[in-house]
Design goal:
Length: 465
Amino acid sequence: MAPAIPASMDRPHFIGIGGAGMSGIAKILARRGARVAGSDAKESATARALRDLGATVHIGHDAAHLAADATSVVVSSAIRADNPELAAARERGIPVVHRSDALASLMDGLRPIAVAGTHGKTTTTSMLAVSLRSLGLAPSYAIGGDLDEPGSNAEHGTGEIFVAEADESDRSFHKYAPEVAIVLNVELDHHANYASMEEIHESFETFVGRVRPGGTLVIAADQEGARELTSRVAGRSGLDIVTYGESPEADVRIEKVTPRGLTSEVTVTLRDGQSLAFTVSVPGRHYAHNAVAALAAGVAMGLPADELATALGTYTGVKRRLQLKGEAAGVQVIDSYAHHPTEMTADLEAIRGAAADSRILVVFQPHLFSRTQELGKEMGAALALADACVVLDIYPAREDPIPGVTSQLIIDAAREAGAEVTAAHDQAAVPEIVAGMARPTDLVLTMGAGDVTDLGPAILAHLES
């Protein structure tokens, strides 16, 4: 039986319903029987999928799209105050609900696992969702990306477990009360909302403080920021802390990660001394760590470790996380969501390890002016791990330009680090540029959190011609 729908969520209107986080909540509500409506800036496959579930999706933002009987308007932090639908809701006295509050309400009456961290949230949440489904537990889940299997970013399941990606960017993860919380890493990011690492740590401490009494924190033992957080929350009453990683002191210890082409074999020793070996079907040490975090969380929920380890092998990936888009003229095109220097380095090292004899060409699109201002030099240094790269203009997303902050900051840093860099201000010209650079056996990575992902098919078409 589905949990009851809160009255405010009976006829919700989502502004930006096509977004990864918003669409997931809308899908779950639609499957629970709510009459869902919303608007988005442009037509998309997500909008069509929502319509297939019975939702009303308008293209463009207009006060007229807000139904007279709407019980709430759901927004994310990306929605500006002058949005006409938001203004109409306030004028008419319709409750405005933040996305995180809507998601929190969906977890009521269930056993939530919340996955947090600066990097790896989507992958780890997806690994849990897929493995729990494989075990027949029918979880509900809300993820910031579409799974390769079963092909959606959200599901309303009939089981008691709800797996959710917990976003720290705007402190919205403070709204959740998980039975098990995962913290993969703690680094400085989202510079428009956090001024220092101290603010980041305080925010994660608040998140950990929301774990239900008797619950568990699964946290990385190898990452500096996570270790600092562990020291801050150690000794809290009613909180079981389980560390994982390659550190000898880790409770769940990674003994070995063996690359096998585009997969890895992982050997771990659990807190009770049990040893397990299982396959992770995506390359890279960081993905192996994500899988072990998922394993530790499942065990904390009372699941059999050996069965869960086998089920984790059924995970095949998430769209945009080292996703193979195709091959043409002997060149493979792979899509990466990496947009922070740590993520960029991890994905480039993973690809280098999986295909050591291939040249790696990167098409990188910086994401956000604030992030580029703070981390542009580090992004450039990461790009030096590629054999050549094309750098696009900054994808602004929700931000206004910052004077003097352009992708040239990254280009200069990359060249200083020894990278071969081509600046591309006309995105439409990039497929032809890349096709002219690429040779058979090369790997092309489209990298970034913006619309650089759309270039993959065009690059393949130019390679074919």
